[in-house]
Each structure stands twice: as structure tokens, then as C-alpha cells.
Amino acid sequence: MLSQGVPFFGKEVAGDCPPRSACAAARAAAPSSSSLPRARTDRFDAARALRLVDLQLAFGQRPAGSRALRRTAERLKRELPRGRFENVPGHPGLRNIVGVLPGRRPALVIGAHYDTESHPEGFVGANDSAAGSAAVIEIARAMGRTRRPAGARELRFVLFDGEEEPREEDNDDFFANALRGSKAYVKAHAERTHALVLLDYIANKGLELPREGSSDPGLWRQLRAAAGRVGVGRVFPDTEQTAIFDDHTPFLNAGIPAIDLIDFSYEHADSLEDTRDKLDPRAIDAVGESVVELLRARDRARR
Questions:
Q1: At a CB cut-off of 8 Å and minimum separation 6, what does 78 contact?
Q2: Where are the alpha helices (DSSP H) in the chain?
Q3: Strand, helix or coil at 252?
């Protein structure tokens, strides 16, 4: 459940070349001038994840319920194992995208939202949250190639629709108006969900991911340990940032352990500057490799 006495704040142009093009591939493969550490493992394909970011940005602004997001969703569904849509009751046109690697239930969920803000006009959300969606898909791909032990927990990879508040809402009650896909998912699947790892602002240059203030401390310690084993512990400092309302909040409210990986200091949040050039391949790779290591460790421990 959410800790008491902690302030909460709502979380609350297209790429310069088309997806899968020569320039996108070259950009993803270009040498990095990043100050971030390089992971010692190579299970998560950061270049492929960034091509999935480019794919989403090519559809332009993608608010919940829009034609652009529905077209994006059809493409992303094909990238997830056993990918399918789940409608969001009470919100016609909204759909979560769910992929599954079978195993023991209740399931561990890896999630991100795939809709963008509806304003300002032209917002494409490279980090918020095309990068998170792309990372979820690539984590699913990495785990799908892994030989998992008997008794390993089911993994669900969920891309939430309707995380952002509708444009027509003119009040500032983010929790009441937003998080529509995650609220619906929890309502439908709470008893079959063991824990959630949420990816949000996870690919920006200078990435730092202290524990989000409401995130489950035990699951967070497991993630930091996994990051240390793959050589990127510095990206996950042993400090705490403010607690926020995000797609992990409905899970916490239902008593499900959840953590939110989000660099809430990201300076281009909710602006037209949240574009592809603000992303760092080593940032998304650090997160991807850490989450894959976390899942593999939990498999070994039958957690």
C-alpha cells in the first residue's frame, strides 16, 4: 500500500527518419559519448529497442483513443509474445496490450504506458513513454530466449493505455482522471498478479533512478542488486526521490508490490523537447539489462 504522509504529484517531433531506415539504424549503432556505465552483460538489445522507439515516433502524437495510437498498438502487439488486446472498460477505444510467457501464477508484470500526452500539440513522448514501451518489448524478447527453470513464475508484459489524463479534463486531479489502463488491469487481474516493475522515464541522457518514494523497498533492493551484478549500479543510487502517481499506484493500492523506474528530474518532461535526440542508448540498455537480470535471478530463486 502507499506510505502515509508522503506528498504525491501527478505524472501527469516525430523522429527525423522513419523506423527501420538506414539512418535510424546508424543512429542507434553510433558510438556513445554517454557518461553512464556500460553493462557487462549483453542480453537486452538496446539498438533494437531504439528502433522500436523510432517506430512509435513515426506515428506522431499518440494520445489515448486516437487513430495514431490504434495504429501504433497494432504494430506493438505483434512484438509481444502471445500479444493480445484487453479493452479498458468504461473507456471506449482504449486497449491495453498484453504479452505472456507462461509459468507459475500469480504473474510478475513488467509494464509501461504507450499513450502520449494530448497536449502540447505535436508532443511525441520519446522518453514518456515510447522508450518504456520499447524496453518492455525487448525485455520480453530477451526472456523469451532464456531457458527458464521448471516452476518459474509467469511473466506478463503489459503496455497500458490511457495513462495520461484526457485533454477535456480541466481539473488537476490526475489520479481520478488518468491511469485508466492500469486501473482496469488491476481490477481484472489483481489476484493473478504477484508484483509489478513499471518503466517510465528510463532512457534520457544522464539517467539516474533513485527509488521512487512509494515503490516497494524490498523489490527495489532486488533490482539494485541486479543492476550491481551487471555493472550499472551507479544508475540506481541508494537514495529516494519524491513519490508520484503513476501506473504502479493502482497496484500498490491493491496491496501488490510495485516499483516505478522513473527519472522524475527529466528536464524535457511534458514538452515538445521530449524527442529522440534526448535519449541515450546506454541508459535504456542499463535499465533493460538490470530488469532482465532481476527476472533471471527471481527465476533461479523461484520467487
A1: none
A2: 22-29, 46-57, 67-77, 131-144, 174-177, 180-189, 217-229, 249-253, 281-301
A3: helix
Q: Coil, helix or strand for 68?
A: helix
- Chain-centroid distance of CA 39 in Å reads 19
Hey, how many other C-beta atoms are within 10 angstroms of the C-beta on 242? 14
C-alpha cell, 180: 485508466
State pTM to two decimals. 0.90
**Which residue has cell 518532461?**
269
158 HSE (CA, 13 A, CB side): 31
Amino acid letter at 245? F
Helix (H, G, I), strand (E, B) or coil at 227: helix
Per residue in 57-89, pLDDT (tens digit) is 999 999 999 999 999 999 999 999 999 999 999
Task: Report the DSSP beta bridge partners of residue 10.
Answer: 245
Strands 153-160 and 104-113: parallel
Give pLDDT tens digits for 272-287: 999 999 999 999 999 9
The answer to whether 147 and 296 have CB atoms below 8 angstroms apart is: no
Start-end of H helices in 94-243 = 131-144, 174-177, 180-189, 217-229
Domain boundaries, the chain: 43-301
C-alpha–C-alpha distance, residues 11 and 35, integer Å = 27
How far is the C-alpha of 94 from the C-alpha of 78, rounded, in Å?
18
Class of domain 43-301: alpha beta
Give the H or E element holding residue 195. Answer: strand 193-199
